[in-house]
Design goal:
Elements: H1 8-17, H2 22-29, H3 33-42, H4 49-60, H5 66-75, H6 80-87, H7 91-101, H8 107-112
């Protein structure tokens, strides 16, 4: 078995301070994720759960132009299904965006689509 040396401070800076994933860190140091996991254990480097959740949140961010969404959803009075097809995202993402923007349709607007 070949022992791979990774500087503790360098690993801490890249993995914790810069908040890269274990996979990204492994690619950066040109080693496997298992090696990164072992070095973190050896150096007692533990990633805070909030940092991990922050990274997970990045992948879930909805990248939809809010003005265009407003135009499609409210002005043109389209359905959530239509918007999900138009923006190529799931209905759950559209509902999440509606909640995030706090822009719910009135009951009358909803009935017009039926």
């Amino acid at each position: 078995m070949k022992l791979v040396y990774i500087d503790k401070d360098e690993l801490y800076d890249y993995y914790i301070i810069q908040n890269h994933t274990r996979k990204q860190t492994a690619e950066h140091f040109n080693v496997s994720e298992v090696v990164i996991k072992r070095r973190c254990k050896d150096y007692n480097i533990v990633k805070d759960r909030n940092l991990i959740n922050e990274k997970i949140g990045d992948g879930n961010e909805i990248k939809i132009d809010k003005d265009l969404f407003y135009k499609i959803y409210f002005v043109q009075n389209n359905t959530i299904d239509y918007c999900s097809d138009f923006f190529n995202v799931s209905c759950a993402k559209i509902k999440s965006l509606i909640n995030k923007l706090n822009c719910h349709k009135s009951f009358e607007q909803t009935l017009e689509n039926m």
